[in-house]
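Q: I'm writing up a methods section and want to include an example of the input and output format. Could you take the sequence below and give the corresponding predicted structure tokens, formatted cleanly so I can copy it straight into the document?
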Amino acid sequence: MNNSISNVDSSDLIITSQGFGLLRKALIENMGNERAKVFLYRFGKVLGNSKVEELKKQYTSTKDLVGLASEVHTKLGHVSSIESNGEIIQLEDGTLKFENVLGKWFDSFEAKLHVEHYGKSSECSCYTLAGFASGYLSTIFNKEIYVKETYCQSMGYAECTFEIKELQDWLNEDPQIVNYLQNQTIYEELELTYDTLLAQKSMLDKIANYHSDLTQCIARENSFHHVLTTAFNALEIPIVINNSNNKLIATTGITETEYLELTNSSNKKSIVWQQNETIYQKIGDIHELSTPIYLDHKLFATCSFIYLQQDQLDDHDYLFLERLASVAALCFLKEKISIETTERLKLSILDRLINEQYSSIQEITSQLKLLSSNFENPYYALSINCSATKNKELPIDIYDQLLQISQTFKLFSIDSLLSILQNEIVVLIYNGKSKSQLVEDIDKALVYIKKNNPTIQYKIGVSTEFSSLTEISKHLQQAKHAARLPRDQLIIQYEELGILGHFLSHTNIDNIKRTAINELGDLLKKDPKSKELLYTLYTFLINGKRLEKTMQDLALSMGGIQYRIRKIEEITNKNLKDFYTASYLLLLIESLITLGEIEWD
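A: Here is the clean output for your methods example:
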């Protein structure tokens, strides 16, 4: 039998390579490279299949049909020539054996078209050619055979190379190839695309409705807990809000006890994935999806979804979480503005009271009763000093501290007005509590504040009680004196000053300063040596003139302490062994410290 191909069938459609090139370019630009690649491969596969069916009218031998493959390619203008190696052997049981079936296509028309339209390629481009060869061989052997192009002329190689294997063998090497070869019609692809778009639209509608519901909560001035409940009802996912110090603020869908038991049972935390600032992590037996909440460009809190099972997470949950975090930020901002407005009003009233800017005390009293129905005497004044524990030069936002202290006092049922005076926070307590109960509540509040501000040291002075608001200036001075008393305790009552308090209350301040200058002389100079000697004197006197204790406190030798004491006695012309003299000097120094005239690091 003459193994040559007859003339073109009269039913064949003839198209020039340039015409096909334009069609190919239009497919890539309108369908995208990946879909066009699949389409062209399938198009070529159908052509190869049809060609074999046409040839079977003349040839019945499998060997003849395989032998005609190169001639088919060249006569159809696919390539100028083909070089092939290896052999496809069909065993008796019908299985195929591929023995290094490799080959080369020379002058591929499709590679040339690709370079002409798109320039040099980063991947093989003979999609139609590979499809044609695959369809041709698959039809001959009635098996799924895949001709894979390994190198392409469009990539800059001299010729295109290919390798032939049964499809299953290729899948064993690269399972992803099934996405490229899956036999979907255009209709099926469009249907899948439609279903995907419908699902995306449904998800977008759900997100829009969810966001609208949350926004409506804000517009209607619903509480923050109502916002969380709305989110939980929509998603049925437990929600947790922690502040920047990881302290629990609110929970919905899970109790505080349940959450703490689940998270405290294990210290093991591992991040599963992260997208921007949203983190999905495993904590013990649960999973947590969390995102930050910012207020005034600072991290304020963290909003989290809790999953008891890993498979409960949906790919779109992060969108719902981030929207909840945005609405939560609005809630916190609204609350902050409300708090600041109230505190500014309180601050204004207290400033007018301290500076006596009122026509009558009844005017202030009436305004205070609008702020609180529980406005009773006795009253107390507080002075609060805030300082950095480590870096003394680090600035402290006193107004932010005022807001924090105000909210903490409210939490512990301490009714108060707060203001800032000479970089100190001053407070008027008006809740009519007993002094012992008040100090106990302040101590609890101070513990809470320090947990949130571990780098800040607080010193609180508490005045004696008073019943008339006109006496506030006098009692603020008491509180200031108590706060400045050099003692280790953090809350100091004015009564603890003892004779020092009586001395300051009944002695003219200017007289005290003049007396101190006369008695202490050059020790009050601002140079480092004088400060060092004055501090040595104060430490010596506060330790009851015990040299060994003073030596330990100042980390000096006994000889060094004795030298300084002699030097101090020469400067002051005083005998420090005299009990009256020592007590008098200690009273003067502590008076200056309490008045703020002496400060030590």
